[in-house]
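Board notes (copied after class):
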Amino acid sequence: MNTESQLLTKRLMLRRYDLEADCAAAFELYSRWEVVQFLGANPAVMESLDQMRARIESNLKMEHSRADGTGRWVIVPRDGDGQMVGVVLFAELPDGAGNLTGDYEIGWHLHPNFWGMGLATEAAIAVRDFAFGVMPGLLELRAIAYPQNVKSLRVMERIGMELEGKTDRYYGIETVCYRISRDSWEDLRG
């Protein structure tokens, strides 16, 4: 069953944020420097549950105002205790001033206890497929990362993306950009 609010893979359930159920686990994720060090122009750890709650509320409000399928899903192992272990997103990329560019990205953030298990790749494939499925006019999808974020760059390659090069077009920072076209995605799917 794949709906906008829930995506299922072999090992994962991706679902939209539940403020009450996910706040503590999200704080555990985003209060870690090793997770946030590559996020945005001015990376900073979450310092309190209240700060995390406000961030989730803001994200939920923004996502409810958009009807295009973009948003964040929490990553929950299907054989676990129901707790989130990360987040995967599909969103329109902003420029350095916060203006939307018309380009779309997928991204992922995973708790270090779950690195190296292929979960980011599995979640990213599900959201990649969702993005192309929900937006028939979407011609390409991007993922960006700091050049030193080698683990994320490898995920981009594993999900069929190709190196586009360095750019400072998004978020006002220089990143490495990967992309996959709709045609390449369709070829992957057979």
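Comment from the instructor: The radius of gyration is 16 Å. The chain has six helices and eight strands.
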